[in-house]
Design brief:
Immunoglobulin-like; 170 residues
Length: 170
């Protein structure tokens, strides 16, 4: 039995076969991945990098002292946001008499969404202020008076309206 001989016309050209495309796709995918990585590195802000880490470390110690002051007087807060208005009710062993409190609303990853609000004391002893709806995500809340003698904190996950318990150890 004789074998049929292949002629030049019977062999498919290389671009019609699968294995060369498989071999080409591996380095091509690495090049595409590298281009995407460079694009993301150039266009993404590096807002989470702190320039002066020593001052940040000192500030952390001050925050811990303010949190300890709040714990000493058993200070707690309940913050409610209905989509446009914030209301805060504080409870503590010693009366809180400040007319204004500062609420820092900090996004977990995007510093351009951070807000700082002033809450004003109302006639019933609560505090209130206005703010727009929060975008979906994780937010950190930090409440402090003007003299920065104490500090309450909370972490929330929200897509708009929320309720948060502010404590010194959050």
């Amino acid at each position: 039995m004789t074998r049929p001989t292949q002629t030049v016309h019977d062999i498919e050209p290389w671009y019609k076969q699968g294995w060369p495309w498989l071999l080409i796709s591996l380095p091509a995918s690495a090049v595409v991945g590298g281009i995407i990585t460079i694009f993301l590195a150039v266009n993404s802000p590096n807002a989470l990098v702190v320039d002066d880490y020593y001052k940040e470390g000192l500030a952390i110690n001050q925050q811990k002292q303010r949190q300890a002051n709040a714990a000493r007087i058993a200070l707690r807060g309940l913050l409610r946001h209905d989509g446009s208005r914030l209301t805060l009710r504080l409870s503590s062993a010693e009366p809180v008499t400040e007319n204004f409190l500062t609420l820092h609303i900090i996004h977990s990853t995007r510093s351009e969404l951070d807000r700082q609000l002033t809450l004003q004391r109302t006639s019933d002893g609560r505090y209130a202020g206005e703010t727009a709806r929060l975008s979906p995500g994780i937010w950190y809340l930090r409440l402090e008076p003007e003299h920065k003698g104490w500090e309450l904190r909370a972490r929330i996950s929200t897509d708009g309206a929320f309720q948060a318990n502010l404590t010194p150890d959050a």
